[in-house]
Amino acid sequence: MIDVLAAATSRNTRSTVDFLTTTHEVLESIIDQINDGIVITSPEGTISYYNHIVRDLFGLGEDKPIKQLKDLCQINWSKRLARAAIDSGGDYGTAIASDRAIHFEEKIHAGDTIRFLQFTIKRLFSQNRQHEIRVIVIRDISAKRRLEATLQSGGTCGLITGSPEMLKVLDRARQIAASDASIMLQGESGTGKSCVARLIHKHSPRRSYPLIEVNCAAVPETLMESEFFGHTKGAFTGAHDQRQGKFQAADHGTLFLDEIGELPLHLQAKILHAIEDRRFQMLGSNETLNVNFRLISASNVNLRDAIDSNQFRADLYYRIAVIPMNIPPLRDRIGDVPLLVNHFCDDLVARGHKDNIRITKGAWQTLLNYPWPGNIRELNNAVEYGVICSDEGVVDVDSLPQDIRLYSRDTLVAKTPAMAIAADIDGPAGDAELRSQQLELTNALEKAHGSKALAAQILGIDRTTLWRRMQKAGLAG
Ligand SMILES: Nc1ncnc2c1ncn2[C@@H]1O[C@H](COP(=O)(O)OP(=O)(O)OP(=O)(O)O)[C@@H](O)[C@H]1O
Ligand SMILES: [Mg+2]
User: Fold this and answer.
1) How far is the CA of 159 from the centre of ligand 1 (A)?
2) Atom of ligand 1 at shortest distance to CA of 380?
3) In angstroms, rounded to a whole number, what is the distance separating the alpha carbons of residues 382 and 361?
4) Which atom of ligand 1 is nearest to the CA of 189?
5) How many CB atoms lie within 10 A of CB 380?
């Protein structure tokens, strides 16, 4: 590189032709150092130049010819350009006729890897506009997209379900989001209570204010009061500064008290007053603070049982459970398993895993047969474990976590309808929705002991709709 530059600066001693050749070499050498792919094509798509990184970006080995745009990837270039032009506000004709750069993004398969590439296409003309070339700059934005996917899967809780019962819960959640009523979410661990709480906040008028989450089981009992109400400087040994509590932090927003059943009785009384009056005092202060928050609570223990055994105050329960909602366990919505497995596989691919995941029939049988005591969290972990332990992306029974494998070995004796469906599938991808519907139907029929009228009632549909769905799912006859 330095030699080339030195050659370029000593141009006085060289002919013009030499100089132009050298300039060309300098430019080429600079372009090869850039991390973006650069391709020059004719308007018809014949490539006259590309830099080194282009082969890496598209996962093309040295033996693959790169002569036409279609040699790079399976994009329908003219269609994609038209769509990009329309997306950017113009129509294709005017956008393509103007000198404006066109941008679009594409998810491509580079060998076994999925890449997210951003394309910028600009037309360049000779001085008399007789000749035209197109310069395409290609930037790899996979890292950015994967980070977004990771943040999204943790943060916004894209809730996936096809279960009528769960869909009702979500409809209800959206419907009551607008009110200020206190909500109590009850359900086993890992069923999605925290996700539903976030969904409610996101759909509420308070969404531009904070959602403050407190896991009551994770706060040491001695620190609970100051965690909730805050403290002044010197309020107790070790209180070096004044500190705001969660109640105050949630002002104008939503306060989410997770695992509220874990609150010790003496604190339940204090919390009751603070919730009732929306007023409290910081530890070490006489000043009363007013707050305005919406309360959502969650518990994975049955609080009515806790009331009966004097572990939970009935008056607090009625205050926080104005709208009680039950989140069904995954074993009661087994039709969600294929949808969730697919979703978690997509999520892994979006976070950088190779797009070659396949699940064997045996593994599907095992996943559908297991009762999922840890619910969706456990299924998510099992999918991630299975994919990591898979053989070249093929998830077999042996790739699954031991608990699930052993359960399956001990119980796979009688064929349930769900298992009969599992025996027909090999996936994932594509037909997950059909699979989910089949499982939902067989599950309802199983619960209804074969009575179609009762199954229709369980699903909240009429008998004709049930019959139509059974036909569509290949279950009628
Ligand atoms: N319907 C769903 N679709 C996709 N992911 C889900 C769904 N429900 C739950 N999850 C995922 O499962 C995990 C557990 O969900 P969440 O934390 O909301 O459960 P929880 O009921 O609050 O559990 P815990 O009682 O332990 O607090 C999370 O990673 C969440 O993103
Ligand atoms: Mg939770």
Assistant:
1) 8
2) 12
3) 16
4) 25
5) 19
Ligand 1 centroid from CA 169, angstroms: 14
CA distance readout (Å), 423 to 332, 359, 368, 420: 20, 12, 11, 5
Give the pLDDT band (50/70/90) at residue 413: very low
Cα 7 from Cα 15, distance rounded (Å): 12
CATH of domain 164-326: 3.40.50.300
The ligand whose atoms approach the alpha carbon of 377 most closely is: 1
Ligand 1 atom having least distance to the Cα of 376 = 12
pLDDT in tens, 66-116: 998 888 877 777 777 777 766 665 555 555 556 677 788 888 888 777 788
- What's the CA gap between 169 and 192, in Å, rounded? 11
Model confidence, pTM:
0.66
Q: Is the pLDDT of residue 422 over 60?
A: no
Any atom of ligand 1 within 6 Å of the Cβ of 60: no
Cis preceding linkage at 205, omega within 30: no
What residue segments make up the domains of the chain, in order of their start?
Answer: 34-140, 164-326, 330-472
Mean pLDDT, the chain, rounded, equals: 83
330-472 CATH: 1.10.8.60
The answer to whether residue 37 scores a pLDDT higher than 80 is: yes
Q: Which CATH class is domain 34-140?
A: alpha beta
Q: Is 157 in the pocket of ligand 1 (CB under 6 A)?
A: yes
- pLDDT given at position 300: 93
Which amino acid does the sequence have at 41?
Answer: T
Same fold across 34-140 and 330-472: no
Ligand 1 contact via 163 beta carbon (within 6 Å): no
CA–centroid distance, 194 to ligand 2, in Å, is 4
Location of structure tokens 């559908």: 368
